[in-house]
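pasting for ref
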Amino acid sequence: MKQTAGLLAALAAAALAGCASGPATLGERSVTIERTAYGIPHITAPDPHALAYGVAYAYAQDNVCMTADQLVTVRSQRSHTFGAKATGLLGRRYLPNAQIDLFIAAHMDDAALERAWGQASAATQALAQGYVAGYNRYLSDNAARLPQACRGKPWVQPMTLAEYRRMAEITAAQAGIVALADGMLGAQPPQPAAKAAQAGAPAVDLADAAQALRERGLLDSPLGSNAWAFGKDVTANGSGMLLGNPHFPWSGPNRFYEMHLTIPGQMDVMGVGIGSYPTVSIGFNKDVAWSHTVSTGKRFTLYELQLAEGDPTTYLVDGKPEKMTARTIAGRTLWSTRWGPLVVIPRAGLTWNAQTAYALRDANTGNTRMLDATLAFARARSVEDMRQAHAGLGLPWVNTLAADRSGRVLYADVSVVPDVDAAQLERCAPSKPAAALRAAAGLVVLNGARADCAWQQDRRSPVPGLIPIERMPIAVRSDWVHNSNDSFFYTHPAQKFEGISPLVGDASLTRPRTRAGLAEIPEMLGRGKVTLQAMQEQLFQNRNFMASVIVPDLRAACPQAPSSEARAGCAALQGWSLRNELDARGAHVFREFWRTARSIPGVYRVPFDPRQPVATPAGLKMDDAAVAAKVWGALEGAVKTIQAAGFALDAPLGSVQRPAITEAPIALHGGEEFEGVLNNLGRQEPAPINAQGLRIDYGTSYVQTVTFDARGPVAQAILTYGQSTDPASPHATDQMKLFSRKQWHTLPFHREDVLQARVGEPLRLRVQP
């Protein structure tokens, strides 16, 4: 009771907007929340402030404990609340709470964030203020009735506007400094003996450097997606069609939330948003549908510093010394330069020694433009409007694919990328070991000893130092475009781009899903004009692309299998359909085999050829005895791992693969990123099968198909994990069961459809001006 009373007192002190729910009187502002099947809220409000008020209230009804936990993070109170050694989620990584608290205290500059938000539109600022008020209103109304996970907990407290801005900052910068939080905290001046130690430092293992960046989500990011957009040349109805299939975490604030948002006469949009963003990130309105995929663009650059002789906290720029800035927070001194904070990544050879240090400049720090971009998307009437909506450079780390009712489609990677072109990369090259990290681990390191290695300043860019829309890859077509997280280079076989910075992307192809899309889309088009059903069926065929190019060679070599384990693995793979369906037998054997075998040097019979991106690499080089021995070793290891976990080699995939976020026995179809299954399911922290099976907490999340008829949008979707993170909610796993059955549901967008589909009575909240 004391804890609940304390929360109520805090809420009163926060001067909450709104009063008790109920009918509004004439002249009052109100927001209405109506729910349809699967708990989808349809929120109608007179203005952006009231709309965000309703979004926050509805979201808290389903996810209040997750938001309260996230607020503990941005308050830098995780150690005090949950223990310093326990781990928490910061952006995309789990770190010890003590590290999270120190990073938040060090990185968050509330005054700077307030100034940045002051540059946003009045509508965006109203959205932020309304969200804070709506969340606090929910706590006021329900302090004694919160879900079990946070009921009566002292850490459930009202939100402030400064805390809201901090949550948005983590989202924007999670592909930059947030991912290297421990590297920033670990950057400390070298001890006197460091100079001698440096002389004998071993050469960097570039493969391990790449793995270090992979573990931080900065190389081969675990966040991925597929998006396909089809134009009038290839669709059955002559209108645009879109398949959106983002692959995001199933837990934490990056989870999607379905909603329909309406400001009469101004905006009517439906789809999903993430966390504390009270707008639709992926969705549709009456004229346009869009989805996003994580792009290959770089969000930061590192600068290699030349340190002054005898003073490792002074660095040289054009031969002149500059003193580093020091701040002491919670007993730890943190260091910064004109280029940004110092960071270390020891496994990549980026350390602070007597001669050299490294600083990081993050392009998304202070990016408050995302809400303005999503508002512009919501109001778009064509793909050309969508194109123009990108001009403010608000999208922090994603591509956009869109289709409109007239049958035009768009691909655009107009995201936040430092303005560094190919010539500057060459001119500002760092030491050879640091330069090697770009190809090996995706890290761009520039020469910090030269002032002219600062990011370029194109006068057309609304954000100094970022590449403007005029120099980013954009395609508008009437046939099709696609993306599966490789670069713009693979948008469409006939689409060419010129003059694009290497920091946006290049011709490298690292995602087997890109190959799958480039193979499966033409195959689907070969069967006739595209329909929504055709897109849905193509995605959920669950073809394992890498198995299709690997397993035939393995099967052919199986008569020479050198051990009982290898022969057992071969037997399990002989009858497999090469698809990751619920009833597929052998799919888990291939996964555990390929998890290891894909890293064998020279494993492919046909190496990658950029002229044949779909057909290569392919096959197994089984005529090479050394490679063959390692291939058999990988298969033997897979068999032993599966048997040790207690599963049969011929077990159906549905009995092995199930969700990690619930103990409900829900079978899941789909496959891992490295297998090239378009319906991508996996783990945020990859791990082999164990006694619990293959427990999924990442991948296909919100999947939608949209086209247009005379009335407007025709949309079907599945939110694979459901709306709520409360295990007691009926919407915690209801859509996961739909996903298991491949059962899509129609989204009610038109007013008459919403009224017909409405479940329960609407909730109307009065909003204080």
